[in-house]
């Protein structure tokens, strides 16, 4: 499978790149700065600012993964990036888009999201709000999208292959700890690419 991976040098993107290449997929790794990408990977420099450039990069791909992370002081950039990705993928036969999303739009009680619950730390509210708006853009689009929300704590860790999947409810353990490693998240994302189960839908992961 030929996969275009945006944000390939980031925390989640670098793990997804490793998982994709370890399974034999052909990856076009896209980043603002490609210097740290591993040798042998097709690298493309792009900042996701131009629809035509995005469209040219994804042409001929089987799928697109967006692990784009906006700057902390301007989190709404993820909204503009999502708009441009949707525009670039709005032609017939365009590849599928899987987005590395946020957790705060997941429900923690019936009809109550983590963002709306009041329990989200203030420093996370801006990025959570931006990601929720990006998800709304995908839902309103006509493209073949999947939005993959991590657990509340999305951190480096072990590649265990043991996790639970869900749809719109935050996954937590019996101690109310909602957590997933970047490595296990990458496994589940590539599983979804290889065997699609959540087209035009959101799903989530946790231990």
From TrEMBL:
NAD(P)-binding domain boundaries: 7-196
InterPro entries (UniProt xref): NAD(P)-bd_dom (IPR016040), NAD(P)-bd_dom_sf (IPR036291), Polyketide_Oxido-like (IPR051606)
GO molecular function: oxidoreductase activity, acting on the CH-NH group of donors, NAD or NADP as acceptor
Recorded superkingdom: Bacteria
Transmembrane portions of the chain: none
Pfam families: NAD_binding_10
SUPFAM superfamilies: NAD(P)-binding Rossmann-fold domains
Name of the featured protein: NAD(P)-binding domain-containing protein
């Amino acid at each position: 499978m030929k996969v275009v991976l945006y944000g390939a040098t980031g925390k989640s993107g670098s793990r997804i790149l490793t998982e994709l290449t370890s399974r034999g997929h052909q990856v076009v790794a896209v980043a603002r700065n490609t210097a740290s990408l591993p040798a042998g990977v097709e690298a493309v420099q792009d900042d996701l600012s131009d629809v035509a450039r995005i469209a040219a990069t994804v042409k001929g791909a089987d799928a697109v993964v967006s692990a784009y992370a906006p700057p902390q002081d301007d989190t709404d950039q993820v909204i503009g990036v999502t708009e441009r990705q949707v525009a670039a993928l709005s032609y017939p036969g365009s590849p599928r888009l899987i987005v590395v999303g946020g957790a705060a739009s997941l429900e923690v009680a019936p009809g109550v999201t983590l963002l709306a619950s009041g329990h989200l730390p203030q420093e996370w509210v801006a990025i959570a709000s931006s990601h929720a708006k990006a998800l709304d853009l995908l839902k309103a689009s006509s493209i073949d999208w999947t939005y993959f929300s991590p657990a509340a704590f999305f951190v480096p860790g072990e590649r265990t292959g043991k996790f639970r999947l869900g749809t719109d409810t935050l996954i937590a353990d019996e101690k109310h700890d909602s957590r997933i490693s970047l490595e296990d998240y990458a496994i589940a994302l590539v599983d979804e690419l290889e065997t699609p189960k959540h087209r035009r839908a959101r799903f989530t992961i946790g231990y």
